[in-house]
Design goal:
Blueprint (H helix, E strand, L loop, with lengths): L28 E13 L2 E8 L9 E3 L3 E8 L5 E6 L25 E7 L5 E2 L1 E6 L5 E4 L2 E3 L13 E10 L4 H11 L8 E4 L16 E4 L4 E8 L5 E6 L4 E6 L2 E8 L1 E4 L4 E7 L6 E9 L10 E8 L18 H10 L18 E12 L14 E6 L2 E3 L6 H6 L33 E3 L2 E4 L4 E8 L8 E5 L4 E8 L18 E2 L1 E4 L3 E8 L4 E7 L2 H6 L2 E6 L20
Parallel strand pairs: 1-4, 3-10, 11-14, 13-21, 22-27, 24-25, 26-34
Antiparallel strand pairs: 1-2, 4-6, 5-8, 7-10, 8-9, 11-12, 14-19, 15-18, 15-20, 16-17, 16-19, 20-21, 22-23, 27-32, 28-31, 28-33, 29-30, 29-32, 33-34
């Protein structure tokens, strides 16, 4: 999912049951052919990368604890890799995907076999294609469901329905990417949001293909939702119906019933929807939540819930909060909690051995000579964690760590902010805007218990940040607005039933505290899931050392790793 001068991602997806997949040789072996194909949206046609010629791409229905292999054939013109968002890959980061962090890319005309190891996670996950400089794709929303020996901690739904929230640009996405790099400013906003690949009734040339969900009155449906929008948080709801959240990021939650949900970029939600209203047609809809003053896509994507039967085609829109309603977004995420029971135990780390406090900032560099820059006041945007803007190496960090190659990365990522100031003040000194640049990592001892506090700042501009960690889920033990108080705020931590996530929102000029046990050895990427911030350097790499026993150590690399 790496975005830099070398890689950029976007998301597409589609839904096929595993037994209907094309080129499926066996239950646990799949073949993906990545190639360009023409697709039409919003009255115009362009080429996009597809998987097996499909947009959106196939869904894999998998079970917790399974191991599968995927043969990836690169029939495109650029280097690619695939990252399986939310899958922990225990002891096996070799095919986690981020280019030049974990592995070398797959060259055009080449094949690479990815091994995908599922842990205990259950829910919706996305396969993301990372393309060398161009065409970002969300191509495969893999779907992990309970093992055959277990059941859901709620009555079995009548059906499961994947819901992929995405975006569409009429412009070639390559031009969007190149403009982002050339100007140092924000990327052009999308022309539409989509539900399962379709913009919906409110956009031109889109009504006939609007996604429709046919339902039976009195039945309950489980919606597996993922926000695959590149740079946007989204509000989502269904007209006339409440929805009940029962899972997030692959872990079960206490049932939370609301008129709408707020879902960050990269987050997944499992929600129950009861078809218990007067039979007819109802819109489901999504639109952006944006807490900053930057331009954003202010359109609304729709799909239709259609009760069985013939009814007038005049659905109404659901209530969704105003686009900058930070309280609505914060209150939703702050209300999530883990489901705790004998069947669903949790293990929140109570004794912390390693604490890290990191600022999360948008930064700026002066514009270069003879350049035209579109960042604030003619600057070029950067971004940082603890004032270090991540620089992508030319040799992947996992290879360098495993092979004891020196000079690829440094170890200077600081455990605490290098300078203390009023992080969320309205006006801050200009010298704070310029970060250091480097490829810095942070080492964690095996089995250490980690508390990571992420502090948003108002450097350049405050904004929400969905922070995603590869290889792990973490307990979100605290969230707040304003500056984190290390003496008072931990007293209010939720250590009883905090949600277990892999992507946490640091709300605008706020903070989030997460805890996890570092029991998955390897090289793991942490970054903001807003892709422009990832491009600008809001990233860090954690290296979790091997333990003493064999089952606590990294597996060796696969024999067919892509060449230099």
């Amino acid at each position: 999912m790496l975005l830099s001068t070398k890689a950029f991602i976007w998301y597409i997806s589609a839904f096929l049951l595993f037994d209907e997949l094309l080129h499926c040789h066996a239950r646990n072996h799949y073949r993906f052919i990545v190639k360009e194909a023409p697709y039409t949206r919003l009255c115009s046609t362009k080429n996009i990368l597809t998987v097996n010629g499909q947009f959106p791409g196939p869904t894999l229905r998998l079970h917790a604890g399974e191991t599968i292999t995927v043969d990836v054939y690169n029939k495109g013109d650029y280097n690619i890799t695939i990252h399986w968002h939310g899958v922990k890959m225990p002891r096996y980061p070799w095919t986690d995907g981020p280019e030049y962090i974990i592995q070398r890319p797959i060259p055009p005309g080449s094949k690479f076999t990815q091994k995908l190891i599922l842990g205990s996670e259950e829910g919706q996950y996305g396969g993301m294609l990372i393309m060398n400089g161009f065409e970002p794709l969300y191509m495969v929303p893999s779907l992990s469901i309970p093992s055959p020996k277990t059941s859901y901690p709620f009555p079995k739904p009548h059906a499961e329905v994947p819901i992929l929230l995405g975006e569409w640009w009429k412009q070639d996405i390559t031009a969007v990417y190149e403009g982002l790099l050339a100007t140092g400013g924000d990327p052009n906003v999308s022309d539409a949001f989509t539900i399962n690949g379709q913009p919906g009734d409110l956009y031109p040339c889109s009504r006939p293909d609007t996604f429709k969900l046919n339902v039976k009155h009195g039945k309950t449906y489980l919606r597996r939702m993922v926000n695959a929008a590149l740079n946007d948080f989204l509000f989502f709801g269904i007209a006339g119906h409440q929805i009940t959240v029962v899972g997030a990021d692959g872990s079960y939650t206490k049932p939370l019933t609301r008129d709408f949900v707020a879902i960050g970029s990269g987050n997944t939600l499992d929600v129950l929807f009861h078809a218990n209203q007067k039979p007819g047609q109802y819109y489901m809809a999504a639109r952006a939540y944006s807490s900053s003053a930057i331009p954003f896509d202010n359109t609304t994507t729709t799909a239709i819930v259609k009760y069985n039967g013939n009814y007038p085609s005049s659905p109404s829109l659901p209530y969704l909060p105003f686009y900058n309603d930070t309280n609505a977004s914060f209150n939703f995420s702050a209300t999530l909690g883990s489901l705790v029971s004998e069947e669903c135990p949790i293990s929140v780390p109570l004794h912390v051995t390693t604490q890290i406090i990191s600022t999360v900032s948008v930064n700026a560099f002066p514009c270069g000579f003879n350049e035209t820059c579109l960042g604030t006041n003619g600057t070029r945007f950067r971004a940082s964690l603890n004032n270090i803007s991540f620089l992508l190496p030319s040799i992947d960090i996992l290879e360098a760590y495993y092979g004891n190659l020196y000079g690829v990365f440094g170890e200077s990522f600081q455990q605490f902010p290098p300078s203390i100031f009023n992080f969320t003040a309205q006006y801050l000194p200009l010298f704070l805007e310029i970060p250091k640049v480097g490829t810095e990592v942070f080492f964690l001892d095996y089995n250490s218990t980690v508390e990571l506090v992420l502090q948003g700042t108002n450097v350049v501009a405050g904004i929400d940040h969905p922070m995603h960690l590869h290889g792990y889920s973490f307990y979100v033990v605290g969230q707040g607005l304003g500056n984190f108080d290390p003496e008072k705020d931990p007293l209010g931590y939720n250590l009883i039933d905090p949600p277990l996530l892999n992507t946490v929102t640091v709300h605008k000029n706020g903070w989030a505290a997460v805890r996890f046990q570092a029991n998955n050895p390897g090289v793991w990427f942490m970054h903001c899931h807003l892709e422009r911030h990832l491009t600008w350097g809001m990233n860090v790499v954690f290296i979790v050392k091997d333990g003493q026993r064999q089952k606590e150590r990294l597996f060796p690399p696969p024999p067919d790793m892509p060449p230099c």
